[in-house]
Amino acid sequence: MHAASVILRRAAVAALLWTSAAPASAADEPLGVEDPRHRYATAPHRDRFAAFKADWEAHRIVLGLDNELAFLRSLLAALEIPVSSQILVTSATSLQKGRITPRNPRALYFNDDTYVGFVPGGQIEVLSLDPDLGGIFYIFERLQSGRRPAVDRADDCLTCHAPYSLGNLPVLVIESVVPSPSGGGEKAFRRGESGHGVALGDRFGGYHVTGAGPALPRHWGDLIIERRDGRALEVPNPVGRRFDLARYPAPTSDLLAQLLHEHQAGFANRTMEAVYRWRALGFAGGATPAAAGELAEPLVRYLLFADEVPLPGPETFGPSPYAADFAARAVRDPAGRSLRDLDGATRLLRYRCSYLVYSAPFAGLPESFRPAVLARLDRALAADGDPLASHLPAEERRTIRAILAATLPGYPGRGR
User: Fold this and answer.
1) Rounded Cα distance, 28 and 7, in Å
2) Which of 7, 74, 280, 408 could make an S-S bridge to 41, C-beta 3.0–4.6 Å?
């Protein structure tokens, strides 16, 4: 049975249970894809890849079909995803887990709202963020030379990306899994956690890490675990030792890209949880201004990096191939300042407010909820001692507020 049909079938069961035994409170309600009222399987899509898919199927887009690298490069270019964002993953933690090993890593690429996965000899996966629905999953057929591959929804991905433990929300999952030589997990860390608050020492398991400076603390990247004589041994696995880097469009698995990818996953997951909760409140008649303000609090806290794990020093990461591509998307105020300006010493960004306030998922927040988020963000930046911004010096708060007022549509005091 196709995965979308499975979701519809589950939704029908959920609808029957809903009418026969309504939950006692909104907190007990099914949140995500299992609740038919959210219409995850049936609602029209507003994610960027949905529009690409329609153009691809109508032959309005031309991609390279000679080989898989040509196809991947042209796909990334069409989606405005830089090759320099490449991250290499050696653990078998994908829908294509049978193909992923330290000898055949999976590569990830991303921009603000679209994520692409590539396994040499396998298929290309896409996760695209819909402002209403969250993560929408797609997969291309395996490429055959000269033939346009079909692309379809890949809702089998929801098995891992919309687990019951996370409210059945279609989230981004970043696990830290140290693999065996076959790719199977030997050690796992921070499952269910995402975002810039995750300790650096718990990240990168199953990932290659390039571009790291000497200040980066010990972590679980660039390792495999081999079992010899009943003992588990940690064995170094530097990038390119067990595979040919020429099979990928870049020779890197950049640390800066991984730090930003982690921040983006935390943002996406918290944003979609807020959207689903706000919609659930609407179902129950509880979508009041007070409820909007309460729901905005954790999202604003995350936007302002209140719980960011400090970087250990100015040598955390070295020159990055991704830095220029990241900065190229900057929205700048009249003084030339941007929320994409990097710090890299004790924190990721110079001005600690997420650049993802300009992204489609944030712009697409429900019209009845987004003003509450922006108002709470402005209050946090305007007042001394606000609990959501008490970690920010007054000058940094004033600068962030000025940047937002000059550049972000709908921000209170825009243009002041």
Assistant:
1) 20
2) 7
Q: Could you tell me the residue ranges of all domains in the chain?
A: 44-247, 262-407
pLDDT over 60 (residue 198): yes
Phi, psi of 405 (to 5 degrees): -65, -30
pTM: 0.91
Three-class SS state of 45:
coil
**What residues are paired with 185 via a beta bridge?**
179
Convert the pLDDT of each residue in 96-136 to its tens digit: 999 999 999 999 999 999 999 999 999 999 999 999 999 99
How far is residue 129's CA from residue 133's CA, in Å, rounded to a whole number?
Answer: 8
- Per-position b or e across 164-202, b if 16+ CB within 10 A of its CB: eebbbbbbbbbbbbbbbbebebbbebbeebbbbebebee
With beta carbons less than 8 A apart as the criterion, state whether 4 and 45 touch: no
The candidate with the shortest Cα–Cα distance to 354, out of 336, 390, 381, is: 381
